[in-house]
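Dear colleague,

Thank you for sharing your sequence with our group. We've completed the structure prediction you requested, and as agreed, I am returning the results in plain text so they can be pasted directly into your records. Please verify that the sequence below matches your submission; if there's any discrepancy, let me know and we will rerun it promptly.
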Amino acid sequence: MTQKQTLSLVLPDQAPPVWAALRNEAAAACKAEPPLASLLDAVILCHGTLGDALSFQIARKLGDAVIPPISLREIHQEAQAADPSIVSKAEADMRAVFERDPACKGYLQPFLFFKGFMALQAHRLSHWLWTEGHETLAFYLQSRTSELFQVDIHPAARVGSGVFVDHATGVVIGETAVVGDDVSLLHGVTLGGTGADRGDRHPKIGKGVLLGAGAKVLGNIEIGDYAKIASGSVVLKPVPAGCTAAGVPAKLVNCPNAGEAPSRTMDHTLADVVYDYQI
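Please find the predicted structure tokens below.
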């Protein structure tokens, strides 16, 4: 039985702690892949906590000639001390990847290799800097994140925990957007504004929402809890909780949905019944 199959048999609050599982996976990978042993030791095994490892990984990935890795690590550690949710959200994000991505074999993959996970952790740092008044530094990290991971999240955007950004390339989240807990979104998703007016102009995404590949949600509109936005759709009006929106412009399909949160099942299929009005 695989580790993933084993974890799926226990309740979430009984699952092995993420940090312990990550260290175990890293130790096993060291033996199986000797060329990666030094990387695994430096990024994971030589650290005592998930927060320490995360700050090292952030610094390793985003540090450059302008902000050296050691300086960026210190900034991230300061952010963790001020806001411990930065680490707890990272843990929830890793669980989300592991539980929802059938290609994910454990926690080691997202922590080391998945750019959606790392872009989200970089955003959490830039968002903290933004709220502390360091807007220029926050913008700098946003720019670095966009260059490295092809994910553009404004530092002011608010993102919940347990968020899964799958594949990630081309994701854009605007300044006044809000993304709730347990949301899943795929590559090419845009949470954007309409027009040139300033102020509150971006979508508010509820809990447990699934945003399919290439979906565009535009304007200061609400996507209700546990809704689903089909791949390639353009949504310009609010979507009620538990409903599916599909098409260009989007129409309601199978409203309300039945069953589990779409963000957890990752079910992108659509019902046959389509309502005869646009949202």
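Summary note from our side: The chain has a mean pLDDT of 92.

Kind regards,
the structure core
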